[in-house]
Amino acid sequence: MSIGSFNIEQGYTIFSRSNYQTKRHSHYAIEIVYCLNGSFDLITAHTSHTGLQSAVIPPNLAHGFSCINGSCDLLFLDPLSAIGSYFMQQYHLASAKNVLLNVAGLDQLHQAGKFDISILSALAEGKRIDHTDPRVLNCIKTIDTLFSDEKISISQLSETSFLSKDRLAHLFKAQMGISIHQYILWKKISLAVLKSRTGHSLTTCAHFAGFADSAHFNKAFYKMFGLTPSFVLKS
Prior knowledge:
By secondary structure, this protein is α+β, with helices and mostly antiparallel strands. It has helices at about 80-90, 115-125, 135-145, 155-160, 165-175, 180-195, 200-210, 215-225, 230-235, and strands at about 1-5, 10-20, 30-35, 40-45, 50, 55, 65, 70-75, 100, 110, 115. A 6-stranded antiparallel beta sheet has the order 1-2-8-3-6-9. Strands 5-4-7 form a 3-stranded antiparallel beta sheet, with no helix packed on it. It starts with a strand and ends with a helix.
């Protein structure tokens, strides 16, 4: 397993994996899988899919992954990034109940043996249409300002968005395909990663980003990517 690019602050990370498999799990990010050679398998709550060449996995969809007989590139996208928003809208991922298999057009996004972020960015910019409710946008803006605060609460966000806590949580999830808590967690992880690039320890980075301790950061990071932060950030 190798790390192609870990630009979480820009909304994406890329891993390359061979002879690898995971237990069933789910995560905040959109996951796009492209097979370089051989094939891969996916298991969801609905069915098993074998002999795949590409797939788009929506946020929060429980799945198991296996490329024991192949090599794959895995692109993780922040659903609220420009590229992530494009995929969310283009493939209706907020309401998707299963993985999208062998998606037409992914070959054009994977050039010279790797995902081409410049092509993805241009595609997203050219077709980006924001239909997000202004109250959800206000919630996101508040989170972006306060996310490093360990005690940020739904109550705070509901006040600034002029919605009840339940209504805000429902609207945010319906429109963005992810929960408010998951978005806050992604922002905290992003901040910790940025801090680590200045040479600080993982413990210092965890506290700086608002995690209770390094164990909490490790658990959140592993659940998000299936890898420990110490491995990724030292690679």
